[in-house]
Request: fold
Amino acid sequence: MIKVKKGETLFEAIRKYRMNIDTSCGGKKKCGKCKIKTIGYIEPCNEEICLLTEEEIKNNIRLACVHGALDKDIWIEEANSFDDFQILSDEDTLVCGDEAGYVAGMDIGTTTIVLSVYKIDTAKKVEEFRFLNPQKFYGADVISRIQACNEAGVKELHDCLIKKVNECLLKMTYKIKRLCVCGNAVMTHIFMNEDPSSIGVAPYICKVNDFRSYSSSGVFSLPYDFEIQVLPALSAYVGSDILMGIYAVSLNDKELLIDLGTNGEMVLFDQDQYIVTSAACGPAFEGGHMKCGTGAISGAVDKVWFDRELKYHTIQNKEVTGVCGNGYISWIATLLNENILQENGFMEKESCLKEGIVLTRKDVREFQLSKSAITSALDCLLQDREVKQVYLSGGFSKNIEILDWIRLGIFYRSWKEKISISGNTALRGICQFAILQDKNKVEMIQRKSKTISLMETPLFFERFVDNMYFVERE
Ligand code: FES
Reply:
């Protein structure tokens, strides 16, 4: 609980105290996610009457970004806890190295971060830290993070990230020799305190695109030093997380790796070349930008079905708090199967699971945009090329129901038997690299990679409207 003083705004306070609040729209009063609970009454304003339920308003839930300076001191606390966010980490055994000691690998996602510690000579995981990216406060996607860097300065976002990682390093039981880091290009730039703005504007380039190695002493406040290694992105929109995914999976000919997170990245190994592309699919697949969207936390709806009426399951069977990405896919597929939602995305009225938990027409449209970005990117990447195997990667994909994805027209029906859920390949790759340090393999992947820029591919735009339809693909 924190005290907000008279004259301060709630938004300034949650920023100052780095409260773990979802601020998906970056404080633009649109997403309705920055919920806090006030101890004491504040008059609700128009935005809150539109974006919150009556029950929430009655229970003193308010939106942090919509109020001006307070005319009295007030205590506030988080309305939703994100502490139990389910982040997929990888349990696979890795290949041993021939040094003594410990290393760590860290995958910095736009939404979530996982830091794993391994003993080098046994390749066994000995410790792991999972947490929400503290920069979530500055917006849900990479574009809003770039904007935040332009407005507040990259140092502010860098410090916020480093402070959180430093806390984990202080808690760590083992002294590490090195920390290897991967992520999308915006995240790795911010980690290195480098300006990411060139990634957001044409011709979309990284300021830093080489392998970086430096000492931890100028970065973290710890009683010992270690080496930090930051892996390079393949291009502005294909980060070192996908490089490490390729490194981990070792694709064979005509095998496809799809990594779905806030961005959708995909790579096909064909004729001795890694053909790579990335679609900014938006956060809808992770519950972002949706009226009742939330992360995969306790109480999030993760499955919906029809049995005379809509039924649902929540994570850990807790009281419903919102809907996560899996829940939306399941819900939309169910509505399509029951002919409540049409293939063009039309439904007569919003769908309701219980009071306050709704799927609006705007949500469906948001989801269609994300879905079309993925499928249009796949069309550009594959262009009728044969696919023998599909590896689905990302914190998101562990519990997915493949048939729902096929029903929504995201994956082809012919892939049904070819899809394997491969966990967090970026994390597995970065930890394996931390252990083995085989830079030759990384350089080989870089050399053989060819990135397709969707902005310069007319087919992407030609397919985009058709791919908004929920039509199964053979
Ligand atoms: S409504 Fe406050 S951050 Fe979106």
In short: Residues 23-25, 27-34, 63, 65 surround FE2/S2 (inorganic) cluster (CB under 6 Å). The chain has 13 helices and 21 strands. The domain at 102-247 is CATH 3.30.420.480 (Nucleotidyltransferase; domain 5). Residues 252 and 269 are 7 Å apart (CA to CA).
